[in-house]
Amino acid sequence: MGSVVKDIWSIDVEDDTISTWDKMVVDQRFWIVVITVAILPICLKKEMQELHIVSMGLFYSVLIFIFILFLQLCFLGANYFAEGEPITFQQFLKPAEDADFVSIMSALSVLLVAFGFATNLFPLYSALKVKTNENCQVAVRWSVVIIAMIYLFLSLTAVFLFGKQIEYADANIMENINKELSVDPDRWESYVMRVMFLVVLACHIPFIFFFGKEGLLIMIDEIDRKSISANLNKRLQQLELRD
Questions:
Q1: Which of 15, 57, 175, 213 is the least buried, fewest Cβ under 10 Å from its Cβ?
Q2: Which residues are within 8 A (CB) of 173 and not within 5 positions of it... i.e. 6 or more apart?
Q3: Nearest CA to 211 among 129, 123, 125, 128?
Q4: Inter-residue contact 200 to 62 (CB < 8 Å)
């Protein structure tokens, strides 16, 4: 967000004569504090259903981000921001020339992130209106399909728009979006996409905080009152009586 403000207000961070306020609004720590204060009431919600507004904000922000990037590809053409180093479709049909064992393992490790949704499985199940295994399986299937389509579509769009510049930025799309203005100063879409990405990041925090908070409260309850252990013992006794 600091970089967006810096570009919009044309603030030179290396200029010693700029005001204290200008130095503050381009500082990343300032916006971390602002976002923390803004989303703190949401992070303290008791039920996952109360995070509905956050999930909608996350979903629509991602859609707007991808839609703008796709429109740039459609209207500006492929390799518009490639700076003379385009990537052709044929390059997808063969392995990278500089690929080695470490880079391949690094690429595969990204797939492990997909298993992170396992931490959301039980809160997701408890948030279902009709709590059945079938409904949970449907929700997980649709989530995996939608996320896979988003990642695939976004990756292909970025590669054809930025060319090999995507490699020079360590495959970081946001680094390329930040540099759009240096290639074409009239690209106002760069501001919008960076703000949308900030919203995406901010909307992730309540979910992460929610699961961490639930886990911490469970540990405190177990140490103090042992509620879960007591309930499990009761269920085991009931099962033994049935047998």
A1: 15
A2: 154, 158, 162, 166
A3: 123
A4: yes
Cα–Cα nearest to 99, from 89, 110, 108: 108
What are the pLDDT tens digits along the chain (243 aa)?
A: 556 666 555 566 666 667 777 677 777 787 778 888 888 888 777 777 777 888 888 888 888 888 888 888 888 877 777 666 666 666 655 556 666 777 677 667 666 666 666 667 777 777 777 888 888 888 888 888 888 888 888 888 888 887 776 655 556 777 777 777 767 777 778 778 888 888 888 888 887 787 778 778 888 888 888 887 888 888 888 877 776
Residue with the two structure tokens 């976004």: 154
